[in-house]
Amino acid sequence: MEAFWSYLFGFISGAFGSMIIALWLENIRKPRLTFRIEEPIHQIEHPKGVAPAVKGRYLRIIVKNEMPRIRVIPRSPAFRCKATISFYHLNGQPVFSTNKMRGRWINTPQPYINQYVDNKLVQIPDPNPFVLSRDIDIPASREEGLDIAAKFDNENDCFGWTQESYVHMWRHPAWKLPQDRYIVKIEVESLGYYHCTVFRLDNSGDINNFRLVNPLKEDRKIVLE
Description:
This protein has 225 residues and is of the alpha+beta class. It contains three helices and 15 strands. The strands form three sheets. Strands 1, 2, 3, 6, 10, 11 and 12 form a seven-stranded antiparallel β-sheet that branches. Strands 4, 5, 9, 13, 14 and 15 form a six-stranded antiparallel β-sheet that branches. The N and C termini lie far apart (55 Å). 22% of the residues are buried. The model is unreliable at 21-25 (pLDDT under 50).
């Protein structure tokens, strides 16, 4: 009888230990996405008459699937990452009634093609990228850029930047942000996992001062809690 209980205790201890190790390994292997502001800020100047603006300043976040500290254990890719972006006033009130904007990964094909017509370069709409999946995979140690907002020329307003912005002369009316400061909430859903963070968007000045900054503690509390 004593041998039976000793065997049973050993069996249960081994099973419990195996379960703990499996959970520990799963926790290490699961995707871990980190977010940082892209620097330097992406700016483009276009020839006059070719594009909907001469000067554009684009705010982006870099999303990285970090390697685990124990390098011999590989990190799983973050599969089918789908991003949504929400804009809030500093008091926590949503800016838009339909608050979540579908995020655009910067490597998504642009929905137009450049062609010369009568010796003039023009942009012709190409709708094909709209039907392509906008979800991406982020392998371990790799990073992807995520568009947040853009501002043009000497305009006061900025605009949330999404794939549909291209068919609205780069200024999607649904995501128009007047001159002010905002809290930006970024959510990324990957297969089986959820990641979320917060930044501040400063549109209180001209295009040269248009930027993302790290949030205050109360920003996280207002938006995430």
